Amino acid sequence: MTARTTTWVRELQDALGRDSVLTDPEVTASYARDQAMLVQAGVPAAVVLPRSTAEVVAVLQVASRHGVPVVPRGAGSGLVGGANAIDGGITLVLTRMDAVLEVAPADRLAVVQPGVVNKTLRDAVRGHGLFYPPDPASYDWCTIGGNLAVNSGGLCCVKYGVTTDYVLGLEVVLADGRVLRTGRRTVKGVAGYDLARLFVGSEGTLGVITEATLALRPSPPAPITLVASFGTSAQTGQVVERVVTSGLVPSMLEVMDQTCIRAVDDLIRADLDRDAQALLLAQSDSGGEAAAAEIALLTRLCEEAGADFVHSTDDPAEGDLLLTARRMALPALERLGSLLLDDVAVPRSQVATFIDGCVAIAAEAGLVVGVVGHAGDGNMHPTVVFDAADDDQRARAFTAFDAILALGLSLGGTVAGEHGVGTLKADWLEREIGPVSLSVHQAIKDALDPAGLLNPGKLFRRGHRADLGAVGALAGS
Amino acid sequence: MTARTTTWVRELQDALGRDSVLTDPEVTASYARDQAMLVQAGVPAAVVLPRSTAEVVAVLQVASRHGVPVVPRGAGSGLVGGANAIDGGITLVLTRMDAVLEVAPADRLAVVQPGVVNKTLRDAVRGHGLFYPPDPASYDWCTIGGNLAVNSGGLCCVKYGVTTDYVLGLEVVLADGRVLRTGRRTVKGVAGYDLARLFVGSEGTLGVITEATLALRPSPPAPITLVASFGTSAQTGQVVERVVTSGLVPSMLEVMDQTCIRAVDDLIRADLDRDAQALLLAQSDSGGEAAAAEIALLTRLCEEAGADFVHSTDDPAEGDLLLTARRMALPALERLGSLLLDDVAVPRSQVATFIDGCVAIAAEAGLVVGVVGHAGDGNMHPTVVFDAADDDQRARAFTAFDAILALGLSLGGTVAGEHGVGTLKADWLEREIGPVSLSVHQAIKDALDPAGLLNPGKLFRRGHRADLGAVGALAGS
After folding, report:
1. What are the chain B neighbours of A187 within 8 Å (beta carbons)?
2. Other Cβ atoms within 10 Å of B304 Cβ, number
3. Helix (H, G, I), strand (E, B) or coil at B430
4. How sure is the predictor about B466, in pLDDT bands with cuts at 50, 70 and 90?
């Protein structure tokens, strides 16, 4: 540890106490990266675990004073290296700020700290007949702060939207340690720029979220679950297109191909149809005759797309098992090899074409690509399976991964549906958004974090000062 | 016209043609202000009506080169002076860019130019079984560009949200004339900052929106409409609270007090209950048994709150008449005198308290305050009625107007629910958001429009350079 580092670490320890500032390399190593195992990560000089907004303020004041980069993070469930440590920097872990501060049924909202686990919030509001929809696959261990950072989705999005759709207000500690409170407790409000939604999805590059006011919905009725098996994955894409044009809004519409079906069935013995080339899982939570009508229409659309088998159930246990099967797709694939998990969202009209393209890319690469995803909203997670110890396979895997991203862009899609950009896709972000948008990103980053201390290198590469000068002088030319 | 003005006007005429650049004072005067009649407005040196994005680019290039302020506007239906002209500036009228460029049923989206009238879009998508929910009172003449500028709401919001909830992507011409395309055609997407939603609600201060990709919903079933009359306005607030805690989501939940009821009935002879102190109008568009159950529950909640009379109907003509009655509240009040129209949103738990407070403020001022609003989402429009020719009444009216805003803030609400901030409430914005948020607003404004040419003075007052320097140097201190 350099003398300079020793100085700022001591300042942090003075401000937060020694038990909140970890420097033992064996301990800090465990905070060095998220779940994106193949993405580069540095070694933090200190891991800091604040207990309050005031302590976050103290950390950012010390960091600004000494020019130390800060990587904010939660549980580390991220999939794009967004929480990966910076060499010599501070990794700011928000998991101790884990209080559900308020549940207000008469306003259908909750106020939480960033370290609250998604499932904890869901459980806390359920007793009030309320529902917090965003449900990433890691919902039983990921934190709301992380969800806010990448604007997480989940299985609910086809009907209920994503994290940002539930954000009413935020408390954010800015790069210099000032505390911004923005947004509201009201349903509507147009007083000023929508700063709350600017911070959501900004991956810790603009500020550290220390509190969130989140909208809730009334709990929906118990769902009816439908499962259908198909001879090709692309048939499930056809169902999606018919669902959209039929005006149907299921509460879940998921797809898994044979690779995923078999991997899951091997893992949890869910009695899935192992011979199917693809399964479609859907739910309606509209209740009563409305749910019955939706499931009847879905059944017909599946049959018309050529389903081999369609079955629906209102048995909660059977529905839960099918949902678990879908949620286990990624852990199940992990048993087959190393994974490169894609997160491409395409316009819903392009789901079938996208699935066909993934099959072709797998064949070209000579690798397995497990196709799983939120078909109903077009957000697909084709997952390249390979042997990381085999250099040739590894190279082909990255080629396939990139080909899938390029395919998504060519179909009018995005390289980041719900996992964020992080370290993994920073170059792809530039390719997707183009130079004008990139310069606007840089100008906003520069306005809020001029020294570039907050999660540097994530989301996008920061331009040189010369470039920023040109942007900053836009209208003065 | 000064020599300098003559120069840039000629440049605009060369670029767009003389018929697109109006300078006749009698003509330009008609573009000087929006519907906020009591708010200060300047005299534009030129009114420019571009026909394409390329022409908007040309206008902003000329404006930047010569340092001329630009006020973007649509039809001028705004209620806060957001479109009011700047002396010697350009008023940029987007109404000629009025094409619905695309309706894509398989992706449930539409792509429109900013000058498209809200109703035109609604009509264009209806034939595809689709629905664009945001429905401000002026929906039959306001433009989508204006809706985007202030993030308009309407009667639909209690179930369907506001304009920003339907924005997928935008094309924006920046202050220096560069064209930013941001957002997506997909349901989900987290690639970079949510710039689209930063521009929505920014009231023309950050860029000029020239195209929008908007999400659509399947058309809902025909609604059932409920009307209930009460002995006090506050009882309707009690109904709102019970609706929220009961998990009910009506597609409309509006309130009008006796002043509004009688004014409307005088104007359109809607056979309203003129003796009621307040009417509550509600709809359910859930269809079938679900709608029937929702209306039955609403009926019970109204009765339990002490309604004198509750009636529901699935007759479309009767429902439309009641809806028209609600929409005519403001035009009807205008016949009683000059108006100061408030736009306060409070947490739904505070609606009853807020209505009580407005009654007290009216008594204190010795003026009529017509209470009308979107009770179901807490966005209320108490409207002060007065004689503008009477200085004393005028002073008391502004005092009452301010007292209503202060009441809203004291209840955890916002001074701008859906109409925007504009000129009318720029000082109140500062009071609501506080100094840290204001400095972040200024830093973002400065990053995107450093010369301050886009709608200056609207939304918030721009700080002095010295202040901005302090903000810009946040983390460098």
Report:
1. 157-158, 345, 348, 377-379
2. 11
3. helix
4. very low
Predicted local confidence at residue B157, as pLDDT: 95
Q: Helix or strand or coil: residue B140?
A: coil
CATH architecture of B100-218: 2-Layer Sandwich (3.30)
- Chain B residues within 8 A of A451 when measuring between CB atoms: 474-476
HSE (side-chain half, CA atoms, 13 Å) at B222: 8
CB atoms within 10 A of CB A67: 13
Q: Which residue of B has its CA nearest to A453?
A: B475
> Do A444 and B447 lie within an 8 Å CB cutoff?
yes
Q: Count how many Cα atoms sit within 13 Å of the Cα of residue B66 in the half-sphere of its side chain.
A: 22
CA distance B157 to B436: 30
Q: Which residues contact A127 (CB under 8 A, 6 or more apart)?
A: none
Is 0.90 exceeded by the ipTM? yes
Query: Cβ–Cβ of A476/B64 closer than 8 Å?
Result: yes
Chain B residues with CB under 8 Å of A421 CB are: 190-192
Mean of the per-residue pLDDT values of chain B: 94
Q: Which of B187, B189, B449 sits opposite A475 (nearest CB)?
A: B449
Q: Is A104 on the interface with B (CB under 8 A)?
A: yes
pLDDT at B474 over 80: no
Residue A95 has pLDDT above 60, yes or no: yes
Domain with CATH 3.30.43.10 in chain B: 3-95+460-476
CATH number of B3-95+460-476: 3.30.43.10
| Cα distance between residue A115 and residue A94, in whole Å | 5
Q: Is A92 exposed, middle or buried (0-12, 13-18, 19+ CB in 10 A)?
A: buried
A420 touches chain B (CB under 8 A): yes
Q: How far apart are alpha carbons B299 and B226 in whole angstroms?
A: 8
Whole-angstrom distance, CA of residue B1 vs CA of residue B4:
8
How confident is residue A463, by pLDDT bands cut at 50, 70 and 90?
A: low
Name the architecture of domain A224-410: 3-Layer(aba) Sandwich (3.40)
Q: For tokens 């079933």, what's the residue?
A: B221
Domain span(s) for CATH 3.40.462.10 in chain A: 224-410
Q: Outline which parts of chain A fall under CATH 3.30.465.10.
A: 100-218
> Taking CA atoms, what residue in A is nearest to B195?
A198
Q: Are strands B379-380 and B278-284 parallel, antiparallel or unpaired?
A: unpaired
Name every residue whose Cβ is closer than 8 Å to that of residue A455 and which is 6 or more positions away in sequence: A69, A70, A71, A72, A82, A86, A203, A204, A205
B391-410 helix and B351-365 helix, angle to the nearest 10 degrees: 160
Please give the residue of chain A at the shortest CA–CA distance from B431: A191
Token pair recorded at residue B449: 């429009």
Helix, strand, coil shares, percent, chain B, to 5 = 45, 20, 40
- Per-residue model confidence as pLDDT tens digits over B326-350: 999 999 999 999 999 999 999 999 9
pLDDT of B203 above 50: yes
pLDDT 10s digits, A267-310: 999 889 999 999 999 999 999 999 999 999 999 999 999 999 99
A206 contacts in B (CB within 8 Å)? 193
Residue B461, chain A, CB below 8 Å: the answer is: no
B290 interfaces chain A, CB cutoff of 8 Å: yes
Residue A232 burial (C-beta neighbours within 10 Å; 0-12, 13-18, 19+): middle
Q: Which of residues 243-272 of B touch A (CB under 8 A)?
A: 244-245, 247-249
Query: Which of the two residues, B472 and B190, has the higher pLDDT score?
Result: B190
Strand bridging mode B90-93 / B70-73: parallel
Tens of pLDDT along B351-364? 999 999 999 999 99
In this prediction, residue B3 has a pLDDT band, given cuts at 50, 70 and 90, of: confident
